[in-house]
Amino acid sequence: MTASRAEVLERVLASLRPLLDDPEADVVHVEEVDGRVAVRMRQQARDATTVWCTPGERTVTFEAYLLPAPPSRAEEVFRQALVRSASGWLVHYALDGEGAVILRSRAEADRIDAEFVSYVLAEMWEQVEVAFGPLARLAFGAREK
Question: For the whole prediction, is pTM greater than 0.90?
Fold first, then answer.
């Protein structure tokens, strides 16, 4: 049976409440924005990551921005992202329409519950931790402190 987008949106929000209420979780903010849900997670590799959850009638898409389109060595950045996708269980790397590297996941709306959403967010968190620094250095060079 197909649920309405509003029902799926509420299921997503309900799935996030335990993470937001857990002081040990890295989820620090959850907000509905224009029919989507923004989930802000604390990170170590960078300050934070926002995961956008977009509910549909049949699926929910999760998407997080990793880094902008590489100004140099783009082919190598994209190759490494593609290789890293092979290690993902629920999350894969993709490019948006402007060439930025993003993390994506999509699941059936019926599958959305606190446990599943926790797994998706944990995998996105981990991919940012292990890939952001190396891919950013490759694309933009070393930052001076």
Answer: yes
Short-list 34, 39, 42, CA closest to 13: 39
pLDDT tens figures, 2-51: 779 999 999 999 999 999 999 999 999 999 999 999 999 999 999 999 99
Q: How many beta carbons lie within 10 A of that of residue 43, not counting itself?
A: 14
CA proximity to 124, closest of 64, 72, 82, 75: 64
Helix residue spans in the chain (DSSP H): 5-21, 74-85, 114-140
On whether the CB atoms of residues 109 and 5 are closer than 8 A, the answer is: no
Nearest residue to 135 via CA among 71, 41, 50, 43 = 71
**Domains (ranges, CATH) in the chain?**
5-139 (3.30.1460.10)
- Asked if residues 65 and 50 have their Cβ atoms less than 8 Å apart, the reply is yes
Q: Which two tokens stand for residue 143?
A: 């930052």
